[in-house]
Specification:
Length: about 350
């Protein structure tokens, strides 16, 4: 067996240990004689798996008691609609920091008044836009941000001060990668396939006082209030994705939790950015101050060399390094499950490729 270092932006690498445990339990979970995939979501056995996954997320993120943790479907994209359908009454503010941030804003426009309070679109999202506090609506229903911009490789290094306006964050690509004070947010949501577990699950964390007044148009499956009342089981949850997520959370706990993995994530990002900065061959595309710890975007001197890089890297067991078409070049996604050795191998390859093609 030859496992590669998979630098895909999502679905992304999972810890090998998790996959091995899942493989071992595939045909007979805990003496039940069936796979988790075959268990009723209403069974006691499955409820225990589900409850453990939720409680580990709560523990690892230190989610306060006045927040609910929902395990939903529909991806972060589903939440682009769920956010306005659950919260938008009069007007909402959005920060346009990337393609997903833009998509969230556009989706919300279908449901009410939406204001774009800052954008870095004109600079092709190479940085986090500066938010002028004067521009924020102090009576907005919420302020929406995207904490890490997966495609462009930027992240917020400090959160905007929204005052009493609830801060709503799409945290899909950096949730659980660094300590975040949940108290600063009204709502946090994330598709699982980057930093939580496999695709199919969407984690939504909602401050309880924000429940209770969804739009009458809100579909039941996106209705946080109803899903909270039903323990996320209004209908069938993504049972296997929740189980794998629980295993990933146990793994994360063993790495020293979020604080422990943050150390590793900083070391990985530093190693990679230092290697890129030390070279005049590669050019990182995001501004230095806003560089993401999860998605590292860069180019070689020309698109032909970018393509050659992707091909030769894949042959060396370093896969999925092609950048998103909106940025071009290359992107290395180095989420929690990417080991330091994987980044070391990539840095060695970067140096070798430069020497051969300079
Ligand atoms: C991947 C991603 C999305 C889209 O997630 P889906 O689960 O595919 O809907 C949205 N926002 C961000 C920041 C992402 O990284």
């Amino acid at each position: 067996m030859n496992r590669v270092y998979n630098f895909a932006p999502g679905p992304a690498m999972l810890p090998q240990e998790v996959l091995e445990t899942a493989a071992g339990e595939m045909l007979d979970y805990g003496g039940t004689g069936m796979s988790v995939m075959e268990m009723s979501h209403r069974s006691k056995g499955y409820q225990a798996i589900f409850d453990q996954a939720v409680s580990l997320i709560r523990e690892l993120m230190q989610v306060p008691d006045n927040y609910t943790v929902l395990m939903l479907q529909g991806g972060a994209t589903g939440q682009f609609a769920a956010v306005p359908l659950n919260l938008l009454k009069k007007s909402a503010d959005y920060v346009d920091s990337g393609n997903f941030a833009h998509g969230a804003m556009k989706q919300a426009e279908a449901y009410g008044t939406v204001r774009c309070v800052a954008s870095s679109k004109e600079d092709n999202y190479t940085h986090i836009p500066v938010i002028d506090p004067e521009k924020l609506d102090r009576n907005a229903d919420y302020l929406h941000i995207t904490t890490n911009n997966t495609i462009f490789g930027t992240r917020y290094t400090s959160l905007p001060d929204s005052g009493s306006v609830p801060l709503v964050a799409d945290m899909s690509s950096n949730i659980l990668s660094q300590p975040m004070d949940v108290n600063r947010f009204g709502v946090i949501y994330a598709g699982a396939q980057k930093n939580i577990g496999p695709a199919g699950l969407t984690v939504v964390i909602v401050r309880r006082d924000l429940l209770g007044s969804p739009s009458p148009l809100c579909p039941k499956v996106l209705n946080w209030t109803l899903m909270d009342e039903k323990g996320s089981m209004l209908n069938t949850p993504p049972t296997y994705a929740v189980y794998l997520t629980g295993l990933c959370m146990q793994w994360l706990k063993k790495q020293g939790g979020v604080a422990g993995i943050y150390e590793v994530n900083q070391a990985k990002a530093k190693l990679l950015y230092d290697t890129l900065d030390a070279s005049s061959f590669y050019r990182p595309t995001a501004v230095r101050e806003d560089r993401s710890l999860m998605n590292v975007t860069f180019t070689t001197p020309n698109p032909d060399l970018d393509a050659q890089f992707v091909k030769e890297a894949a042959a060396a067991g370093l896969t999925n390094l092609k950048g998103h078409r909106l940025v071009g070049g290359l992107r290395a996604s180095i989420y929690n499950a990417m080991p330091l050795e994987g980044v070391r191998a990539l840095c060695d390859f970067l140096k070798k490729f430069e020497t051969e093609n300079k």
